[in-house]
Amino acid sequence: MANLDRKAGKFLPLTEATYLILVSLTQPRHGYGIMQDVDAVSGGRVKLGPGTLYGALTNLLQQKLIRRSGEAGEGGERRKVYALTPLGERVLVLEGERLASLSRLATDVSRRLGGNP
Amino acid sequence: MNGEKSTKRVFRMMMVWNDQREERWLSEQAREGWHMTSVNAFGYSFERGAPADVAYRFDWGPGCRRDQSEYLGIFRDSGWEHMGRRGRWNIFRRPVVGGVIPEIYTDPQSRIAMYQRVMAFMGLFLAIVVTQMGPQISREASSDTLGRFPWVLTIYGVLVAFFLYGMVRMLFVIRRLRKTTLPSGS
Fold first, then answer.
1. Which of A44, B80, B104, B116 is deepest in the core (most CB within 10 A)?
2. Chain A residues lying within 8 Å of B80, measured CB to CB
């Protein structure tokens, strides 16, 4: 576990797009499924372009944070399905902890500056 | 069509680093009612239609044929029409709806990564040209076979200059994109 954490730590911090893609892949999905899910969980704020998504998937496969997990659909409409690897799960957890601590800080700062946290 | 031509073919050179110039030009054509139908190494074909606001985007696609269908599928699913390829550049288009210009790269980091792939490709070509032709040149130069030497030297020089120039252009594009990115974005 310590070894896996050390390896996972090297990928931090993630870009927002990469983080949301990994979150989306806590369930196996195909490319378009990821786009729709990221759109939904970000309340429509983050719309992934296909170039950004395809580039991220290629990188994440190379870095072994995700893997191919079969195909969905049939005939010409066949789509590759992606899923997290154990390393990808660790990266997601560690990045989550980092973001959570930033989030606590953000709430604190907003309160001090009289904002609406 | 009132005797007006309803199709046209335009001869047009494209250098590897001219993707954004081509995008703008194709959009201008669409605004004038000329909609691209196909592309080859020498230029584009168009057909006449209603003037429209259309976004054209060039993307440096996967080198491996095996990945092509997954790649094109993701673009098709998100509403982009694949118009063909110029070399490794894949041409996509999508209508502009409600003034919102659609993008295939939605953060600067991934766009920078694409231009870095283009640069890596040119760097590889430059390395091949230098390592394959360099020894040949020096052999010819020392053995006094001046017969075809000037030609070889010219071709060699042009190729090296071409790829060096292309890489410098890419560096400037990347630098401009970096200015829009916060330092934390990796």
1. B104
2. 50
